[in-house]
Predict the 3D structure of the following.
Amino acid sequence: MLNAIARDIRTKAQRRERRRAEMRRIRITLLNLSEKSAYLESQRQSYEQYLETCTQKLGAGGDSSVGPATRQARKMQSVLPFTRQYFHLRDLQRAGRVPRFGSYKYSAEKLYYKGVIVSVEGYPPRQLDKISLTISSDVAGVFDVEVSLMGVRMPGGSCELRMQDLLQQQYDNVNTMTLYEGSVVVNTNLLIFLINKNFYS
């Protein structure tokens, strides 16, 4: 027992030095982690600013010298007369409610056959021609989606989609997503393609 006590006394200084060295390593590790965390936070902020700038440039059609009203006039000229989209834009212009970045109206039937809509609760595919979906954007990267039945907006038939959220869903391999509290199921990739085609091309 005396030998154990003597050995303990002899190694006490070594153990104390080992603990000090370990504490130094822990402090250095914590400092490195803190620096890494600050760096990653600055990278995240830079990425978000870059994404916001890109979204605004895309929404502006890449030409900042052309105002939204001019772009809308050009879009109106390129729309075929007497189509659903033609009458939709004409009604918006008459009401003075033309969204800054555009508005597009589709029949749910057309979107169903294109694969954008997967299903609508309570409506078989042959009845989808009575339902319309309107996608509009007044703010870059933010889209209002309204659903109407035979021209009348359905109760609770409005939702807001953000491009950043859609891209996150796509990145996470979420193939379908629900709108309007689960009553409409859409294909995530094809919805993004539709929005890109109309608002960013």
In short: The first helix runs from residue 2 to 59. The two ends are 85 Å apart (CA to CA). Strands lie at 103-107, 117-120, 131-139, 142-149, 152-162, 176-179, 184-187.
